[in-house]
Amino acid sequence: MTFLRRFARHRGALIGLVILLLIVAIAIAAPLLFPQSPWRMVGRPFLAPYALERFPLGTDALGRDVASGLMHGARVSLMIGLVSTSVALLIGVPLGALAGYAGGIVDDLAMRFTELFQTIPSFALAIVLVAILQPSITSIVIAIALVSWPPVTRLVRGEVLSLRSRDYVQAAITLGQRTPRIIFGVVLPNTIAPIIVMASLMIASAILLESALSFLGLGDPNLMTWGYMVGAGRTRLIEAWWISFFPGLAIFLTVLALNLVGEGLSDALNPRLGRER
């Protein structure tokens, strides 16, 4: 049974994929459907959803279109999730591979360094980093990446430890191949499946973390984000619930979709694990 057929057998993963594709389509279409800046005041403040046809999701406290902010915010959230996860993988995968393959003092030093980051609560460390570097999309990506790479390192190290004694690795060593070539050409390709699954979950965590930072006022002041929209409407939840509800729902659906897709990938890439469930 092929990978696609195993993935399609997971109904939750298919639902998550549809939701995720819809969110990506919304993010791509945002500049076309709402060419004006989402920060622009376009109507009367606190217009309820569908009070006017051109404001289907209403307006916020400053008269900005909630639908415009929601669609433009999708671009920011997805971009931060993808870029920060990519940076975390670039840090965690090579370090974990080196630690697992080399062993000994190299492994000990790498794991102590990893544990140093894991002893500090991720959210607290992200807040400190963004505050020090000044809130911007660059500082947010750096902060999220720096709190996300330790689990990747541990995962890759464990996979490499189980692979380095395999026959094909020993054959590569016997043939005199260099260590970097063995690690990146022989060992790491066999760890792709768990890395892909973890990456999908890391994107979801990154989106949540960025939303939390923006909610606290540590987001990029030049970019409209879902977290900022939720934070901006928190003092008006009773009389203007839609300001926070719709971006909060978008965050929920995006994170749910990514988790469902990650679970489906896990079952498709690890058939034995799927059967045990």
Task: Please sum up the structure shown.
Helices cover 73% and strands 0% of the residues. By secondary structure, it is mainly α.
Work out the count of structural domains.
1
How far the N terminus sits from the C terminus, by CA atoms, comes to 18 Å
Instruction: Look at the structure and give the CATH class.
Output: Mainly Alpha
CATH arch. level architecture: Orthogonal Bundle
Give the number of helices: 12
Order of helical and strand elements: HHHHHHHHHHHH
**Average pLDDT number:** 88
Percentage beta strand: under 5%
**What structural class do helix, strand and pairing data support?**
mainly alpha
The gyration radius over C-alpha positions equals: 22 Å
**Biggest β-sheet strands, sense, barrel:** none
Estimated helix fraction? over 70%
Note poorly predicted spans: 273-277
* Total count of strands: 0
CATH superfamily: MetI-like
**What name is given to the CATH topology?**
MetI-like fold
Q: Shape from CA axes?
A: elongated
Summary tags:
single chain; 277 residues; mainly alpha; MetI-like fold; 12 helices; 0% strand; elongated; disordered C terminus
Folded structure, characterized:
This protein has helices spanning 3-8, 11-33, 66-102, 104-118, 122-133, 137-163, 167-174, 179-187, 192-215, 226-232, 242-269, 271-276. Helices cover 73% and strands 0% of the residues. The longest helix has 37 residues, at 66-102. With 277 residues, the chain is mostly helical. It has a single domain (3-28, 67-271), classed as MetI-like (MetI-like fold), CATH 1.10.3720.10. It contains twelve helices and no strands.
